Amino acid sequence: MIAAIGLLVGVVAGLVLQPTVPLWLQPYLPIAVVAALDAVFGGVRAMLDGIFDDRVFIVSFLSNVVVAALIVFLGDHLGVGAQLSTGVVVVLGIRIFSNAAAIRRHIFKA
Amino acid sequence: MAEQKPGEQPEDEQSADTAPMPISRPANPGRTRVIRPAGGRRPLPSGAVPPVLGESSGEQEQQQRTGGAGTSAGSPGVGGRDTEPGSASDDDTLPIPPQEPARPEAEATRATGAAATGPESAATATTGTGETTASTPSVAPEDPAPAAGDGAQPARVPRPRFRVTRFQILAAVLLGALGFGLVVQARQTTSNDLSSLSQSELVRVLDDVSRQSERLDAEARTLEETQNELQSGTDRAAAAEKATRERLDVLGILAGTEPAQGPGVVIRIEDPQALLDASTVLDAVQELRDAGAEAIQFGQVRVVASTSFTDPPTGGAVVADGLEQSPPYRLLAIGDPATMESALNIPGGVLETLHQVGASGTVQRRQDLEVPVVREAVGPTYAVPRTDEPQD
Asked: Where does this protein have coiled-coil stretches (chain B) (predicted)?
């Protein structure tokens, strides 16, 4: 509940403030957002499974974001930033899909 | 964090998290949650026999409890934390006082085992049957629990519902950050300015732009050339027209198709007896031409290259171009007056010849003489301009 409110507040703040992404953050923000989405989907799934844990969620959220950004950072410095970004997005996408499938099974029993 | 590997069971999360997790299960009981899946599973093998069900669940609970007790004994802090997930999953039920005081009780209850197990198993059994029969498991566990035993309940019920913990706030903040980042990134991408493009994309864009620029440059050059051509063409045409006009004037004067005016001389030839013959008149005309006369008129005839002077067979006045003239003859010549006058007056010249013949001539200079008579231009019948020469 509180988390949903937090999400809503964040979205509204983004819409209202309309900030510009600083240049140094631009390569990492999209990947970080996708990684965070992965963590959120995982959290929702865990919640539906009844094993949700705030601590796990927070740690996984942060570590997902940090690791994703780190991979992109490394890739940029190794000259394969674009490819690594694509790889990270693919992996995270697969995870999001599998989590979404689990959530779907919980909600729709199908 | 490997807690959410795709394809694995949700329990991965817990197992990956090691120690705290097992505890969180008994504590979790947010039991509505934990038990519900259990209830869903258990009734299948032994749904009809409550005692067995109770026993089995009791065993499980026992195991969990012992594990939980052990761990919580080792680190009560962990146990405290682990109860929180339960609170999160129970969010939608009732708010309950903080769990801190409750926990020792709960652990005590777990430790006691038999006493706790009784109500616990009863509760579980009820839940299991409730699950199979009724579709409101979240309420079911609540009711039997207090009824089962007061000793266990305080530990169970105190499950905080709306307890706001640091982790929950942190999760909310993180989600807020996610929403914020999501919106910002989406807007950034939508705005689609060059700053959000990667290097290779920028290179491609640059290539496109420079290629287009080259193409446009080439087109501009072509158009400029065309413009120059047209302009110079227009200029040339104008110049040609001007030259042609001038030439037309010159030729018109020389060919006698245009009236002329300018300085010149008027020669009056008195020949009362008509002694003068055509050759003398022709000599006078030639003399004037030599002296630079540009337009000549004899009587009412414009003298040009093809003008003829003839003597009529019967004698008499000179015939010019078929027109019989009558003395006194008037000869008009436009040119340099001084030159023509002196040319006519030279010894042995025209005027002297006229005297010898028996006629007489007088020369008058005029500063503004008009030669009004024109002559029809007759086009050539056979001759055409050479085409390989420039027309002008």
From this structure: 206-243
